[in-house]
């Protein structure tokens, strides 16, 4: 009986496993050279000539045109890592690729994938226990450690020359926005300005918005300003239904205009009465209202993004109001200075000198657009790890130290586990050593010598011993200040294991004949995939995966 259509493709058994493993390894291999302080960058060029130069694993994988479904599972590992922690994306992907590589050898030796999956899960659970037992406690008062964590996340990402300054700015920013509800790094706005050097980057305790005053007659700067924030408009209200008014006399038209002007004047008078010095409006401001505001010396900005309105309110302590008639003195925020300044040829409004600002702005400067773009990615990673550290209060040494320790512990653990799962746990231990090995390779060192030295020091009980990529020596990473959050490692191991196990359990890949990748009809109530739909497009990209590593 023929179940599939003639032109469909089906790969099953070891061929399917081999194909999926090869795809996963290819993705991992493409970002492996970016790992560590001596990692190389990738240049990604799109069809329209746009260029991205980056060292960031998740950015590389997002920008790459990957079609293979198994390869996309590995890309998801990096995206999960980015969402959860903000750093360690390359580490997670490289571990996932190496787990698949080790599994391939065992599958060739007739170890069943289900046995492998069981062993991998046991190893991941044990690894998590070991890391949590060895983690170092950190509090928010330990500023020195927080700065080291921020600097470690930036290492090797183009910002290295100024990482000490930037790390201080990142820690200041995260501590500023922390409150009893937790830490939301969305309250740290990152503004990029091309021009100047990275050393000119600064932290503004307050909000910076890419807007100008609505009227040239308004003051450029208001000191000790009471700030009002509206998410509506400063305009005459229109009727909610379509209405038609017949005017039979020119005087009636003038009465209409006078009434409109009177309403606008009353709005501005209401602001003056409340003591407003600067007003930020989400929608428009009527021309006549602009005139009255300028006359009263009030600095006004219109069409401010909703996110910026919230940031201004949060930093100044103002309350967002929808109706001018509702404005009270209690709704106003305070800023020592609201000013329009020229930054890199663009006018921006600075709301600063705010006491206890709960929203801040990081100003990043750089010589070219590519430099500031990469700087922003480094800062994002750094903000993520400092936030994670403050939330969890646990860190680990870097430089391949945790992976080397885990490999030793897991080999001992494997001896206590019976059956074939023991081989899977040993393979897991070998896979983790890909991190110190890759760090050595990317630094131009001999990976075998480096691994032997690391194992020797860890055998002697030195948990913090890691590889110095600059000198090639094995040193104590904790005293050297190379530390990263516990969650970076635990999340990387968890997501890498899950992705590897999922890929290993696939023994049949069925691709439709229509490789254009048809879509499911949104109007069709039946959720079944149509012939020629869904996976076909994904599988069609398999041919291009082989050359991907070289193309990078």
How would you describe what is shown here?
The chain contains 20 helices and 19 strands. The chain is of the alpha+beta class and 552 residues long. α3 (69-84) runs antiparallel to α4 (89-108) and α6 packs across α11 (369-392). The two termini are 45 Å apart. Residues 515-552 have low confidence and may be disordered.
In brief, what are we looking at here?
By secondary structure, the chain is an alpha+beta fold. It has helices at 14-32, 57-63, 69-84, 89-108, 113-134, 143-154, 163-177, 250-274, 287-295, 306-316, 369-392, 401-415, 421-432, 434-442, 447-459, 477-480, 486-504, 535-540, 542-545, 548-551, and strands at residues 9-12, 42-45, 51-54, 136-137, 188-194, 202-204, 207-209, 221-230, 278-281, 299-301, 320-321, 333-343, 346-352, 360-366, 394-397, 465-467, 474-476, 483-485, 508-511. The strands form six sheets. Strands 7, 8, 9, 10, 11, 12 and 13 form a seven-stranded mixed β-sheet that branches.
């Amino acid at each position: 009986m023929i179940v599939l259509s003639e032109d469909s493709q089906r790969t099953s058994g070891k061929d399917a496993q081999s194909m999926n493993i090869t795809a996963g390894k290819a993705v991992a291999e493409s970002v492996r050279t970016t790992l560590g302080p001596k990692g190389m960058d990738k240049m990604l060029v799109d069809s329209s000539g746009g260029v991205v130069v980056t060292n960031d694993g998740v950015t590389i994988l997002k920008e790459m045109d990957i079609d293979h479904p198994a390869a996309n599972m590995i890309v998801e590992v990096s995206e999960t890592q980015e969402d959860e922690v903000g750093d360690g994306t390359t580490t997670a992907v490289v571990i996932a690729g190496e787990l698949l590589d080790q599994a391939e050898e065992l599958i060739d030796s007739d170890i069943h994938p289900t046995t492998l999956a069981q062993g991998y899960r046991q190893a991941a659970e044990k690894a998590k226990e070991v890391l949590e037992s060895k983690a170092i406690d950190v509090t928010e008062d330990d500023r020195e450690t927080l700065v080291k964590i921020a600097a470690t996340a930036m290492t090797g990402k183009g910002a290295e020359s100024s990482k000490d300054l930037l790390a201080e700015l990142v820690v200041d920013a995260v501590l500023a926005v922390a409150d009893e509800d937790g830490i939301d790094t969305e309250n740290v706005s990152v503004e990029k300005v091309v021009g100047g050097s990275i050393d000119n980057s600064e932290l503004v305790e307050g909000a910076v918005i890419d807007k100008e005053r609505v009227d040239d007659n308004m003051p450029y700067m208001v000191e000790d300003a009471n700030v009002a924030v509206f998410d509506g408009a400063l305009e005459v209200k229109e009727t909610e239904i379509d209405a038609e008014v017949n005017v039979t006399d020119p005087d009636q038209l003038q009465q209409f205009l006078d009434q409109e002007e009177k309403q606008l004047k009353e709005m501005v008078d209401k602001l003056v009465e409340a003591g407003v010095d600067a007003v930020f409006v989400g929608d428009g401001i009527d021309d006549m209202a602009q005139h009255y505001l300028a006359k009263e010396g009030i600095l006004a900005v219109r069409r401010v993004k909703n996110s910026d309105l919230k940031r201004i309110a949060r930093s100044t302590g103002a309350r967002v109001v929808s109706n001018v008639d509702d404005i009270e003195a209690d709704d106003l925020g305070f800023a020592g200075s609201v000013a329009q300044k020229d930054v890199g040829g663009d006018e921006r409004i600075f709301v600063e000198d705010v006491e206890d600002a709960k929203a801040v702005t990081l100003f990043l400067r750089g010589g070219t657009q590519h430099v500031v773009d990469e700087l922003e990615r480094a800062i994002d990673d750094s903000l993520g790890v400092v936030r994670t550290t403050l939330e969890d209060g646990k860190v680990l040494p870097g430089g391949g130290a945790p992976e080397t320790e885990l490999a030793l512990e897991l080999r001992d653990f494997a001896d206590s586990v019976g059956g074939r799962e023991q081989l899977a746990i040993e393979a897991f231990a070998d896979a983790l050593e890909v991190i110190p090995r890759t760090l050595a390779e990317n630094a131009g060192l001999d990976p075998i010598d480096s691994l032997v030295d690391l194992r020797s020091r860890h055998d002697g009980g030195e948990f913090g011993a890691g590889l110095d990529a600059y000198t090639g020596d094995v040193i104590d990473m904790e005293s050297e200040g190379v530390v990263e959050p516990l969650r970076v490692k635990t999340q990387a191991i968890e997501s890498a294991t899950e992705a590897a196990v999922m890929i290993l359990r696939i023994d049949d890949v069925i691709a439709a004949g229509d490789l254009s990748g048809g879509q499911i009809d949104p109007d069709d109530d039946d959720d079944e995939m149509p012939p020629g739909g869904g996976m076909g497009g994904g599988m069609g990209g398999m041919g291009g995966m082989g050359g991907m590593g070289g193309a990078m």
